[in-house]
């Protein structure tokens, strides 16, 4: 799909990290980018920097998402590229030791359900609402293509570590959405893919550089090559290629410097 000036895109989690880099890369191609995020200050700031629009959207709230799509389309037109980076989750072992009670405790079903909503359900919510808008629009090329949706999974989908039972299984579920959804949408010319980033230098990880430099060095050394954390711009580069290359469909990409995560 040719990325043309004036084409609309939506990036969730676009106020920081991988989403911010993706929003910048798409804007650099001339696209009108709508950022969905709950961080109003950073979201507004980055939207202004790239000539885009900001929309306060809670991906865990159906009406918030519906309103966000309506506002973005009113401002920029029907999106042809959607990149979903936002998420919410919790962490914990299935069974862990509780120091306060001096006994084992179970990760609650409520905590698991929160992560499932913030990762898996929200991915379906964003992708399906975007697909509905694309389905009701005209094709953009001779292939009959109407748009491309890229979801963000994680290497934890395949290499889930201790304490990642929520995150790992739900990110695996994001990968599980890709092929059946791509097949559901094939007659409509809408592509669906996912990216599994490894350890990237997002603001959350960069905070470790000062707090725990030894751990920071260990993380960099753990990547086979190049021996560093990924740059968000490298994630964004793959996002652009997935959007541009119409033959990429129903696929899950690891982007990880060949790292394979150990149990802990």
From TrEMBL:
The keyword Oxidoreductase applies. InterPro entries: NAD(P)-bd_dom_sf, Sc_DH/Rdtase_CS, SDR_fam. GO terms for molecular function: oxidoreductase activity. Pfam families: adh_short_C2. The keyword Oxidoreductase applies. It comes from the Bacteria. Keywords: Oxidoreductase. PANTHER family: 17-BETA-HYDROXYSTEROID DEHYDROGENASE 14-RELATED, SHORT-CHAIN DEHYDROGENASE/REDUCTASE. This is SDR family oxidoreductase.
């Amino acid at each position: 799909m040719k990325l043309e000036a004036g084409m609309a895109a939506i990036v969730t989690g676009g106020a920081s990290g991988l989403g911010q880099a993706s929003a910048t890369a798409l804007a650099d191609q001339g696209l009108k980018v709508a950022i969905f995020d709950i961080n109003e200050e950073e979201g507004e700031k980055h939207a202004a920097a790239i000539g885009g629009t900001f929309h306060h959207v809670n991906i865990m709230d159906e009406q918030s998402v519906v309103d966000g799509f309506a506002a973005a389309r009113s401002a920029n037109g029907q999106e042809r590229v959607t990149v979903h980076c936002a998420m919410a989750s919790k962490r914990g072992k299935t069974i862990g030791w509780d120091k306060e009670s001096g006994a084992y405790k179970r990760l609650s079903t409520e905590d698991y359900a929160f992560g499932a909503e913030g990762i898996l359900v929200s991915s379906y919510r964003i992708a399906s609402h975007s697909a509905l808008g694309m389905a009701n629009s005209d094709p953009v090329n001779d292939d009959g293509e109407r748009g491309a949706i890229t979801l963000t999974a994680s290497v934890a989908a395949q290499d889930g570590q201790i304490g990642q039972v929520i995150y790992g299984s739900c990110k695996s579920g994001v990968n599980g959405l890709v092929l059946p959804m791509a097949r559901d949408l094939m007659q409509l010319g809408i592509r669906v893919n996912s990216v599994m980033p490894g350890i990237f230098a997002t603001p959350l990880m960069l905070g470790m550089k000062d707090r725990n430099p030894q751990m920071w060095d260990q993380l960099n050394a753990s990547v086979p090559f190049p021996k560093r954390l990924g740059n968000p711009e490298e994630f964004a580069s793959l996002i652009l290629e997935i959007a541009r290359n119409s033959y990429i469909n129903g696929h899950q990409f690891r982007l990880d410097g060949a790292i394979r995560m150990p149990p802990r």
